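1st attempt posting a full record on here, be nice pls
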Amino acid sequence: MSSPDLNRLHTHDLELGTTEVVQKHATRNVVPPRRVSQRRLDFEHARPRWLRECIAEATGVFMYVLPGIGAIASFTFNATNPIGSTAFGSLFSIGFAFALGIAFAIITCAPTSGGHFSPAVTIALCVWQGFPLKKVPHYIFSQLLGGFIAALVLMGIYHQQIVEMKEALLAAGEPLVANGAPASILCSFPNPNQTMGYVFLTEFFCDCFVSLIIWACLDPANPFVSPAIAPLVIGLAYGAMAWGFGANTLSMNTARDLGPRVVAAIFFGSEAFTYKNYAPIGILASIPAMLVATAFYELVMKDSLNIIETGHAVHEDGDEALVRHITRTTTVDEKH
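the predicted structure (as tokens):
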């Protein structure tokens, strides 16, 4: 029930019962935001743009990698416990952790840096969208740093379990670097019976699939993907590939693989880079896959005239050249 005191304090809308709400209009009083001071504006203006972008890229990769490898850790440590493995980890939960981590990273950090979070994306944007070449090394270094820090944080969080698992494996004479071993929490390793050609093809096609989805989401003429839903769509693309092909060894991102792989080498030995000669596939395959997939989209799917019509681009030679193109193509279409 409301009272004069509640009305006076402007909190009555929190105390109304269901019947009272439907019988009369309840006014919600919103506290106005704090005014922005000149000191705040001066501070924000003084921040180096390049540094903000680099920190945002590192933060985004951290936000996406940490939940994913955390889910892998939970799955790995509970794999021998039938009840625990069901409750705390599965390939499905790992895919969801990466998918939601990517979505959260884009939502949080993309307004500052553009939300690349992958060297392959940065390189593709440089090739096709005019992203400045001088920024590419800064972005890639920041992305690798974000993955490296995420792996270090996970090693700290799961230190006790990792030490116990490591001691048990060493006592049993089993390796620390293999699929299912503690090093595989941080980065991917192939199954013992897999050939590297097979692993490369799986990685390549899965990366192409995700790259097509990313490029479709970035296409301003695509009527089916709004900016608000794009983070979730991109995240689910990663999740779909993890659910479908994660058991066949996937990395799908140089930053997700190389940064944590360095941490794996620090804690579990250099075999993290030499095991079955897989490391180059996990580290590098996403880059050519991204370039092939985006080339396919640019050459086959993209409609630049639609992008111009929606106001997201202009003709490089001006409006007169655009009019000449429309007149010429319209005349040709009418003749046919």
